């Protein structure tokens, strides 16, 4: 005997979400189909609403309810500085700092041969077209400081050089996170912090 097919199907769908294994996915499926059907209906409606109303900004690929997102539409922001981020979650994390008033470009991922993601799967061509327009004077690379983020940064930097696009580039500083202890940091983190040091 096993779980009804409907629960198994639902469980399988949940297990394809990031970070959810087969046991947890079946637990969620059972919870939604039996214990909390009201929540299941609300989720169903919310998903339908998101699918019907959310689009990608045609300029920067941020999530939006219009063809152009609120950030690209904001004329008070600086058009000459663009920060490249992996996804919209990273974009809004930067926005929360309140310290950046330029524009963004959402890559929709990073180059990852292991996961079959190449440059053509990302919005790199769109970024290069934006730079070619000539308004952008500085590109800030705000990708995660790991192998995939670093190789994506390098790839885009090479593309900019190959196309002779005259734009200044910078990358977010790597190093010791605020509130942490030096003794617990990896030597790579400490080494990055040393290289990124600034004068007091
Ligand atoms: Zn936009």
What layout of secondary structure does this protein have?
Blueprint: H1 5-15, H2 22-35, H3 37-53, E1 55-56, E2 63-64, H4 70-73, E3 78-85, H5 88-97, E4 102-106, H6 124-132, E5 138-141, H7 147-162, E6 168-171, H8 187-195
Parallel strand pairs: 3-4, 3-5, 5-6
Antiparallel strand pairs: 1-2
Bound molecules: zinc ion.
Annotation keywords:
200 residues; alpha/beta; four-stranded parallel β-sheet; two-stranded antiparallel ribbon; 8 helices; 45% helix; globular; binds zinc ion
Task: Describe the 3D structure.
With 200 residues, the protein is α/β, with parallel strands linked by helices. Helix content is 45%, strand content 12%. It is built from eight helices and six strands, in the order αααββαβαβαβαβα. The strands form two sheets. It has a four-stranded parallel sheet. Strands 1-2 form a two-stranded antiparallel sheet. β3 (78-85), α5 (88-97) and β4 form a beta-alpha-beta unit. α2 (22-35) packs across α3. The longest helix is centred in the N-terminal third of the chain and has 17 residues, at 37-53. Zinc ion (ZN) is lined by residues 57, 59-60, 62, 68-69, 71-72.
What structural class do you assign from the helix and strand content? alpha/beta
Note the run of SSEs as H and E. HHHEEHEHEHEHEH
Q: State the end-to-end distance.
A: 69 Å
Query: What is the tally of helical segments?
Result: 8
Uncertain segments of ≥5 residues (pLDDT<50)? Answer: none
**Whole-number radius of gyration?**
21 Å
Biggest β-sheet description: 4 strands, parallel
* Order of strands across the main sheet: 4-3-5-6
Task: Compute the number of strand runs.
Answer: 6
Mean pLDDT: 94
Helicity range: 40-55%
User: Which cofactors or ions or other ligands sit in this model?
Assistant: zinc ion
Shape: globular
Content of β-strand = 5-15%
């Amino acid at each position: 005997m096993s779980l009804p097919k409907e629960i198994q199907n639902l469980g399988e769908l949940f297990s394809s979400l990031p970070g959810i294994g087969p046991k947890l996915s079946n637990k969620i499926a059972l919870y939604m189909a039996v214990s909390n059907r009201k929540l299941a209906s609300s989720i169903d409606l919310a998903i339908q609403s998101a699918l019907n109303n959310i689009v990608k900004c045609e300029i920067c690929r941020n999530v939006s309810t219009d063809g152009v997102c609120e950030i690209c539409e904001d004329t008070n922001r600086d058009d000459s500085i663009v920060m490249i981020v992996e996804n919209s979650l990273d974009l809004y994390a930067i926005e929360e700092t309140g310290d950046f008033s330029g524009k963004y470009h959402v890559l929709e991922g990073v180059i990852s041969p292991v996961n079959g993601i190449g440059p053509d799967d990302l919005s790199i061509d769109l970024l290069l077209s934006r730079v070619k327009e000539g308004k952008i004077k500085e590109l800030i690379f705000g990708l995660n400081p790991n192998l995939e983020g670093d190789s994506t940064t390098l790839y885009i930097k090479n593309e900019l050089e190959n196309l002779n696009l005259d734009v200044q580039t910078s990358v977010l500083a790597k190093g010791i996170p605020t509130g942490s202890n030096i003794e617990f940091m990896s030597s790579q983190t400490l080494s990055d912090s040393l290289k990124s040091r600034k004068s007091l």
